[in-house]
Every structure is written in structure tokens, then in C-alpha cells.
Design brief:
GO molecular function: CDP-glycerol glycerophosphotransferase activity; hexosyltransferase activity
Pfam family, one: Glyphos_transf
Protein name: Minor teichoic acid biosynthesis protein
CATH superfamily of the largest domain: Spore Coat Polysaccharide Biosynthesis Protein SpsA, Chain A
CATH architecture of the largest domain: Alpha-Beta Complex
Oligomer: single chain
Shape: globular
CATH class of the largest domain: Alpha Beta
InterPro entries: Glycerophosphate_synth, Glyco_trans_2-like, Nucleotide-diphossugar_trans, TagF_C
Structural class: alpha/beta
Number of helices: 35
Family: Belongs to the glycosyltransferase 2 family.
Length: about 900
């Protein structure tokens, strides 16, 4: 009998910032007793000291050390001391959920399984996500207990950290980590463990939180020949393992996965290698192909990988090198073209000798259904679809219904989607004709009874491609709930790949009642699931809505907010105006009670605390919701999102977007398009902006309100003529502190603020500078340098943006839309744009306003030019100031104008 149910081996190498979180997550497991073995692999930071302190304080924690020898060696050392019935492995920068090992252990014991597999969630500072391929491991319909020899999807989870391994299994079959491997060491270990395991149980829950650390420099992240040599070695050892087991037929899935990874690595890392290493890289690649038992797996790879395969087989060094460098430079390398009815990769034009290998036999269709509803027999549907890599110009789109050899087609009208070109090809391929206008179809008139499969058909140059319609989001699928019209039941169904069918069936009164009863039962089960999960917030919100909806809807409640912790922008100014001039309007401001801004707004009354039960309930019964940022991510509670996912038909409020800047410098239709956000009204600043939003965002003329921004009412110049504000925007490609400090972005602003000529100019002119770094920069930097006595760094919360704009005489920015506010007060703006091309390819899609020619201030690209123009302050940009009139509407009260538009004059 083992002393512990589970032993967790934690391997640490210089993980000081994260190791406490990792150890605490295991200490606080719901499963007890657990043994923790921390193996320090020669750390040089304080993580070893932290680990040893935990070991001293907890008798079930053992702390071991060794010289730096790699994760495999460290895991083996921990494994040799393990006393648990099962063993788990964990890296010191990851952590586990509170019941992770209880879930896995119970599943393993109940099924008498030697191994257990759970899911995991990846995360970094900005987001969390699941890996797409893991969906196949947890697909519906698969048994909980499996074996890797009969369930090929288990080959898709090579990580050792989301699993439990029975200690006796590892001893019996002499399974340990191969210490010669420094890349892919998990794959060999898990393959042997899962094969030798009598049973593997799969537990569909997140047990591991895997940190994606862009700062970390490991062999797998570096571009070196050693990395590729390690991949070859891994494959040779896996091949040898299955040869010993006499199961080489099982290698097919592993080789397919590894081949795809190897070729993807060639394209991402190969171009970064020195030119004189490419000959050896070709030899290594040839060795990798030689390890494959099932060479045919390469035929399932994409065209560029098949091209590379042929170059490797033919030892064509010159073209191999050309491909590496062309891939590094050419962003449109995935483009395809049509010739004599066949699709070819655009690489065929560059490498004509290999054209026969570059036919694309199965083109990919990219489609997204963004709008769908089935109500009273009417099917409403909208979105976009295109053939990947092929210009969508002139592409005909049809909606197709198929049933028992019969077809019914509806032509779809083209809709301009410049955002699709940006999202999918960085504007390298023209997809702007990919969109199709939302259609509404009476299915009772159009279709006969039967189960119809729904397709999208794309036609270009007499070549057609068809693909089943897919509705990926559950919230959209739930807008098509079954209902009965004229004794015909209309019902949709979606398979495991989200493909849609729509069925029509005549039903009797009894069948109609049964259908209604089934839906009620489903709803009750859904509501009760929150009670069972002890999510009382969501359960009570649903209960309150069902009981009091009719009463509260009559109150015409407006909810307004910005980010959950701010009250500074257009929403605040509109709210302040309404509370002062129209107190009879039931408007409520949503804000986090812990926010510093809460103190400045609470005296106005009608405050709702963010994420409170009242907040969720009022979202459900509100007449209007108003936000100056994206509403879904800044104003919705988690409970409200859960409710909307299942009951999307409950969303009846008008959604108003009043913006926080002027659109035009950047195209942001990829996040604000009508199909994505479905705003009832979209507030703009000028006729120019209205035209742009109508053309590219999918809104009709009566949905776009031209009132200007509410915060402009408070734009009163209080400067003395001696203050310069430096306020840059962010760069989305910067994710970490190290990336910031090595970026041209940081170096440019640092150099300017430390420039001695700049300092002398400030002293001579008796000027002051306020540097207000973007809040993302502030998150990465703890303390800013002391640049000069006349330069002050102001951080978020110390001053409002509004006050900064009012109290400064000149603005230096790069691309920030606060420049419009500043110019609104007829004050000079200087645009310092040293990375124009990068910004408008990596960060934003360039807007209709030409930032180089059409703005209301001087534009420069070098620090020398900045200082030269500053010396002309305040006269350098006066001659361009009148251009602001093209982009803003000036009114006595923008808030009054906006309120009258929103209220329709009902509150005079």
C-alpha cells in the first residue's frame, strides 16, 4: 500500500517569479495525501531558496537538487524518490486547478486505469485559450476508458503534465525520461506509458494551467541546428520503440503529427539560421524523412511542405535556400491561383520546376456565420466565406439546401469586408468581396418537409467549391431553437463539426406539446445546473428575470459604462449630463466599487457595482446599454455571458456604441462590424466618419448617429503655453518586459526623453513635459527613469486623460486618437511616426485617413526632426490646424445632441 495517493514531481530551473504559485496549487489540492518532490535543476536565482523553505515547513514536501542537466534528468531523479500510487509531473512555471489530482485520481481508480488524461488551458498575460487539437481527445461520443492502440486521438496529447501515471506501471516496464532528449522528451515517455497501460481514462476538465512565456529562451524556441537534430532523434527513438513493440502500424498518427511539426518548424526557424547552415539543415531534413515508416504522411501536408519535401528528396540545395528566404520575406506565400480549372499554390510561379507537386487538390474554405436566427419560420443568416489564398473578387456565393438528391439554392448578395483581408492575410490577398449581406428566408415557403443539409457554394471562373455551413458559437446555435408554425415543426441540428441541418416535419397537437415539454425540461435542467454548481449568482439572476421581467421592462432602464474601473470618457460625460439635466431618466452607471474613479461618480447616484447580482439582472431587463468601449468585454458579467449563451433570445435591449475616439486613422471594423457587435446605434464624429462606418462596418444610415463625442463638452483649454504632453499609443506585438526594452518603440521614446539637446531646449524656453505612457507600458514597467527635472512621468490613476489634454499646450504622439481631442481645442499636434509600416501591418489596419498627408499636424520620423520642430513651438503646425474640421463636428453641447438622438425627444 502506497503511503501517498499521488506524488507530484515539480521540476524547477530559475522560475523564481512563478514557483510559489505552482507549489501552493499542489499544497492546496482537494485530494490528500499528496507527496510533493521539488527537483531544482541547478537554478541560479532565488527559486531554490523558496523551494527549500516550503520543504522545511511541510513534511510531505521533499526538496532535491542537482547540477543543471535538463528536465528529463530532473524528472527521473524525482521519480526515483516517489512513494505515491500515481505520479504526476509539473513544471515550476505552471500550476494546477484545486481539484486537478482528485479528478484524475478518482477517474483512474474507478476505472482501474494505469494512466489518466485531463485537459489544460494555456495562458499568458493577455489571454487564455485551449489548444484546438485537444478537442479531438475530448470529442463527444468517445468512451472515457480507452487505449492508444485503438483510439488514435490519444496520440495528440504528448504532454506529461496533464496526466497521472501509475508508479507500478512505470517500474514494471522500466519507463523513464530519455536524458539524451531536450526537445520532445514528453512524447517518447507518454507514448510508451499509454501503450503499456492496460487502460487510459480521459477526464474532460481543465487540470493544468500552462504558462506560455515568450520571454523564456529554451532550445525549442531558438532557431538552431541542434533543435532539428533533436527532432530527428525523437523520431528515431519513437520508431525504435514501436519496432520493439512490433506495432509499427501505429506510427502513422505520430509520424503525421511530427512531420507537420517538423516542416512548420523549418518554415518558422529555417529562415533565421545563418546561410552557411542551410546545407546541413537540408541533410538533417533528409534524415528526418528517412526515419518515417509511413512516408505517405507527407502527402497530407500543405503545398509548401510538399514542395519542401521534394526539394529535400532531390537534394536541391539552391532551391531549398531560395524557398527558405522567400518564405521569410513573402507574406502571401499561401496564395493560390486558378489555371485550366485547377488550383495551384502561388509557389508554382516562383518554382515552376516543381509545379506538378504544387497542385492544391483540396482548397480550404474559410467561412464564418456571424448572424443567424430562426424565428416564426424565418431563417436569417449573414457572414462571410472565401477560398483561402484566392482573391474573392467577383466570387459568386450561394446558399444551398440539399435533401435526397434535391437542391434548392439562393444567391447571396456581396457585402464589402475590408476587415477580412486584414485578419486573414494582412491585406496581402484581396478578400474584401468575401462578405455576403444578411438574408431572411421563409423556410416554409422555400423548403418542403424533410431534413435539409445547408451548404455554402462558392463559384469562380466556372469552378465551384461547396462546404457545409458551420455555426461555431453555441450562442448563435441557440438562436435557432425548434418551434412550430402552422403545425410544421422547424428544427435545426448541428453535428460534432458544427455543420448545420434544418428539418421540417408536420406534427400533431400531441407532438407539439411533447416538443414544448422537451424544451421546458431542457431549460429547467440548464437553470438547475447553476444551483448544482453552487453558482447562485447566475441561478438567482435567471430566477429574478423570470419573475420580474415584465415589471422592470416598463421602467425603461438605461445602463451605461466604460471599462469596469473607469469613469472618464464619453460614457461618464453623457451620464453626468443626463443625471444633471434629465434626472427622471432611469440611467445607471456600472463601475467597480474598488475603482479610484468610483469616488468621483458616486455622488451622482444610480450606481451599479460591477459584477453584482443587480448588474446581471439589469443587463437582462435593460432598455438600452451604452458604452464607449466594446460592450461585451467591458460591461458584461460572467453570469450574463452564461445566460446569453443559452438564452440569446432574452437579449432585447438596444446596444449603443458611443466610442472613445475618432475612427478613420485605423480600420477597426474587424472588431466593430455590425455582424459582430450588432449595435443598434453607432455614434460618430463627422460626416466623413459616418460615411466610412456605413461603407465598411455594415450599418445603415439611420443606425449611425452624427453627434460628436460627449467628452468634447469638457474640452476647455487651461494651458499656459508652456506645457508639452507626450502620449504614445501601444504596439500589440510587444508582449513582455524583455520585448519592450529591446523594441525600437521603447528605445525611441527613451532616447528622446534622455536627449540633452531636448533638455536644454526645455530650460531655455521654460517649458515642462508630461510623459503619459500607455497603460500597457505601465503594466510592464515598475519604475520609470528620472529623465530631467522638467520631465514628469504620470501614471494611470494619477491624472485623467481629459485633464492632461486640457492643461497642456502641445501634444506629441504617434497614432493616438487623443490627437483629435487636442486639435479640437485648436492646439498644435506633432506626430512622431518612426514605425509607420510596422504599426499599420502588425497593430492596426490602416484607415481611410492618410496619416502621412491628411492630418492636422506635422509628421516626422526621426528624433532630430522632432527637436527641430519643437524649437518652432508653438507655431509649427498652425497652418494645418484647420484640417480638424474635416473629422469632427463642433457643437455647443454634444451630450445634449446625443441624448436627444437616443431618447427620441421622449424626455423633454
Amino acid at each position: 500500500m502506497s503511503k501517498y495517493k499521488v506524488t507530484v514531481v515539480i521540476v524547477n530551473y530559475n522560475k523564481e517569479p512563478y514557483i510559489s504559485q505552482c507549489i501552493e496549487s499542489v499544497i492546496n489540492q482537494s485530494l490528500q495525501p499528496i507527496e510533493i518532490i521539488i527537483v531544482d535543476d541547478g537554478s541560479t536565482d532565488n527559486s531554490g531558496i523558496i523551494s527549500s523553505r516550503y520543504a522545511a515547513a511541510h513534511p510531505h514536501i521533499r526538496y532535491l537538487t542537482q547540477e543543471n542537466n535538463g528536465v528529463s534528468s530532473a524528472r527521473n531523479k524525482g521519480l526515483s524518490y516517489a512513494q505515491g500510487e500515481y505520479v504526476a509531473f509539473l513544471d515550476a512555471d505552471d500550476y494546477v486547478s484545486a481539484d486537478a489530482y482528485e479528478r484524475l485520481y478518482k477517474a483512474a481508480v474507478q476505472s482501474d486505469a494505469d494512466t489518466a488524461v485531463g485537459n489544460f488551458e494555456c495562458f499568458n498575460e493577455y489571454r487564455t485559450w485551449h489548444l484546438a487539437y485537444m478537442k479531438k481527445v475530448f470529442a463527444k461520443g468517445l468512451p472515457a476508458v480507452r487505449h492508444i492502440s485503438t483510439h488514435k486521438e490519444l496520440h495528440l496529447t504528448p504532454s506529461a503534465s496533464n496526466k497521472l501515471f501509475k508508479k507500478d506501471l512505470l517500474i514494471q516496464h522500466s519507463i523513464s525520461f530519455d536524458e539524451d532528449l531536450h526537445v520532445g522528451e514528453d512524447l517518447l515517455f507518454t507514448q510508451k506509458s499509454l501503450y503499456c497501460s492496460r487502460k487510459t481514462v480521459v477526464e474532460n476538465s481543465d487540470v493544468l494551467y500552462y504558462r506560455v512565456n515568450d520571454n523564456e529562451m529554451t532550445l525549442s524556441k531558438n532557431s538552431t541546428l541542434s533543435f532539428f537534430k533533436q527532432l530527428v532523434m525523437v523520431q528515431q527513438k519513437v520508431k525504435s520503440l514501436y519496432g520493439t513493440l512490433n506495432e509499427r502500424s501505429l506510427l502513422h498518427e505520430i509520424e503525421k503529427r511530427q512531420a507537420e511539426f517538423f516542416f512548420n518548424s523549418l518554415f518558422t526557424k529555417g529562415p533565421k539560421l545563418p546561410k552557411n547552415h542551410l546545407n546541413e539543415l537540408l541533410d538533417i531534413s533528409s534524415s528526418f524523412l528517412d526515419t518515417l515508416v509511413h512516408r505517405e504522411v507527407t502527402s497530407s501536408l500543405d503545398s509548401k511542405s510538399q514542395l519542401l519535401t521534394q526539394m529535400i528528396v532531390q537534394r536541391d540545395y539552391e532551391e531549398f535556400m531560395n524557398l527558405m528566404f522567400s518564405f521569410c520575406k513573402d507574406e502571401s506565400i499561401n496564395e493560390v491561383f486558378l489555371e485550366e480549372g485547377l488550383f495551384y499554390s502561388s509557389l508554382a510561379k516562383t518554382f515552376p520546376r516543381y509545379k506538378q507537386y504544387l497542385e492544391v487538390k483540396h482548397v480550404e474554405v474559410e467561412q464564418r456565420i456571424e448572424v443567424i436566427e430562426l424565428k416564426d419560420g424565418q431563417l436569417t443568416l449573414g457572414g462571410y466565406a472565401f477560398i483561402k489564398g484566392l482573391s474573392a473578387q467577383g466570387m459568386q456565393k450561394d446558399l444551398l439546401f440539399k435533401y435526397r438528391g434535391k437542391e434548392k439554392a439562393v444567391s447571396l448578395q456581396q457585402d464589402l469586408r475590408t476587415d477580412v483581408s486584414y485578419i486573414f492575410s494582412h491585406n496581402q490577398i484581396d478578400y474584401q468581396d468575401a462578405g455576403f449581406k444578411t438574408i431572411s428566408l421563409n423556410v416554409l415557403d422555400f423548403l418542403k418537409q424533410g431534413e435539409w443539409q445547408v451548404y455554402i457554394r462558392l463559384t469562380v471562373n466556372d469552378v465551384t467549391v461547396e462546404e457545409p455551413i458551420k455555426v461555431m458559437l453555441a450562442q448563435l446555435r441557440n438562436r435557432t431553437k425548434a418551434h412550430v408554425v402552422n403545425n410544421i415543426q422547424i428544427k435545426t441540428a448541428f453535428n460534432t463539426r458544427s455543420q448545420m441541418t434544418i428539418s421540417l416535419k408536420k406534427v400533431s397537437m400531441l407532438e407539439k406539446l411533447k416538443s414544448f415539454a422537451v424544451q421546458v425540461k431542457r431549460d429547467v435542467r440548464y437553470d438547475a445546473s447553476f444551483l448544482k454548481a453552487k453558482d447562485y449568482h447566475t441561478f438567482l439572476a435567471i430566477l429574478l428575470y423570470r419573475m420580474f421581467r415584465l415589471f422592470y421592462v416598463k421602467k425603461q432602464i438605461w445602463l451605461i459604462g466604460e471599462r469596469k474601473d473607469t469613469a472618464q470618457d464619453n460614457s461618464y460625460h453623457l451620464y453626468h449630463y443626463i443625471r444633471k439635466h434629465h434626472p427622471n431618466v432611469n440611467i445607471y452607471y456600472v463601475i467597480d466599487k474598488q475603482s479610484p474613479d468610483y469616488q468621483f461618480i458616486k455622488h451622482l447616484g444610480n450606481i451599479i457595482h460591477f459584477n453584482s447580482l443587480k448588474h446581471t439582472f439589469y443587463l437582462l431587463i435593460s432598455h438600452k446599454t451604452i458604452n464607449s468601449y466594446v460592450e461585451t468585454s467591458n460591461m458584461h458579467t460572467e453570469s450574463y455571458k452564461k445566460i446569453m449563451k443559452y438564452y440569446p433570445e432574452w437579449q432585447q435591449n438596444e446596444k449603443i456604441f458611443i466610442q472613445h475616439g475618432v475612427i478613420g486613422v485605423s480600420r477597426v471594423n474587424h472588431v466593430l462590424h455590425k455582424n459582430r457587435m450588432n449595435y443598434s446605434q453607432f455614434v460618430v464624429s463627422s460626416p466623413f466618419e459616418k460615411k466610412h462606418v456605413m461603407k465598411e462596418f455594415g450599418y445603415s444610415e439611420n443606425e449611425v448617429i452624427e453627434t460628436g463625442l460627449a467628452r468634447w463638452d469638457a474640452l476647455e483649454d487651461t494651458s499656459t503655453g508652456k506645457e508639452i504632453l507626450i502620449m504614445p499609443t501601444w504596439r500589440s506585438w510587444i508582449k513582455t518586459e524583455q520585448q519592450l526594452f529591446t523594441s525600437d518603440y521603447w528605445k525611441r521614446y527613451l532616447s528622446l526623453l534622455e536627449n540633452e539637446e531636448f533638455h536644454r531646449f526645455l530650460e531655455q524656453k521654460n517649458l515642462t513635459v508630461t510623459f503619459f505612457p500607455h497603460y500597457q507600458m505601465q503594466k510592464l514597467i515598475g519604475e520609470f527613469p528620472a529623465f530631467h527635472p522638467r520631465i514628469t512621468v504620470v501614471k494611470q490613476g494619477e491624472e485623467t486623460v481629459q485633464n492632461l489634454l486640457r492643461s497642456h499646450s502641445m501634444l506629441l504622439t504617434d497614432y493616438s486618437t487623443v490627437s483629435f481631442d487636442f486639435a479640437y481645442m485648436n492646439k498644435p499636434v506633432l506626430f512622431y511616426q518612426f514605425d509607420y509600416d510596422d504599426f499599420y501591418s502588425k497593430h492596426y489596419n490602416e484607415g481611410p485617413i492618410n496619416h502621412k498627408k491628411d492630418l492636422f499636424g506635422e509628421r516626422v520620423e526621426t528624433e532630430k526632426e522632432v527637436i527641430q520642430l519643437l524649437k518652432q513651438f508653438p507655431h509649427f503646425s498652425i497652418h494645418k490646424a484647420n484640417k480638424i474640421q474635416n473629422y469632427v463636428v463642433k457643437e455647443h453641447s454634444h451630450s445634449n445632441l446625443l441624448f436627444n438622438q437616443l431618447s427620441g425627444g421622449n424626455y423633454e
